[in-house]
Amino acid sequence: MSMIGKEVTEFSAQAYHNSEFVEVTAENFKGKWSVLCFYPADFTFVCPTELEDLQEQYATLQSLGVEVYSCSTDTHFTHKAWHETSEAIGKIKYYMIGDPSHKIAEMFDVLDEAEGLAQRGTFIIDPDGIVQAVEINADGIGRDASTLVDKIRAAQYVRNHPGEVCPAKWKESGETLTPSFDLVGKI
Prior knowledge:
Blueprint: E1 12-17, E2 20-25, E3 33-38, H1 46-63, E4 66-72, H2 76-85, E5 95-98, H3 103-107, E6 111-112, E7 117-118, E8 120-125, E9 131-137, H4 146-160
Parallel strand pairs: 3-4, 4-5
Antiparallel strand pairs: 1-2, 1-5, 3-8, 6-7, 8-9
Helix pairs in contact: 1-4
């Protein structure tokens, strides 16, 4: 079932953020753009490469008014231990949500029930708490966080310019389209 156009429903979870344990709820996803990045597990192989890559894009994402949240079915205690022992994870400045109950992974339909782990799912959420984009990869396929920047810029442009859409490979300040009867069959 697609999450596109769905509102993030209420939840409460503990996260590790800036050397502290903090609560994260659905309210965190309102009032600004958010990226929620699920990954299978701490202390694994592909996951730290993805999360470090996401950290490398964090300043750019923040400059676009975006907050970043990673989430796995590990606990916030495990996130803290991983942050303190891994050079790659030690760089992370964004929220690391623990989901040991699997409720958040189930809510976003990325729970691999047989394994009890989250799949590699990335969700772009608008300031109203509505999911605007989803990417889900198989366990062995790592993501490229740089693609999030263009996707978020496109989502923000469309939100701020009703009636216009962004074509494939759209870049900031690139040409957009205004869907109309006259364009049918012309592209």
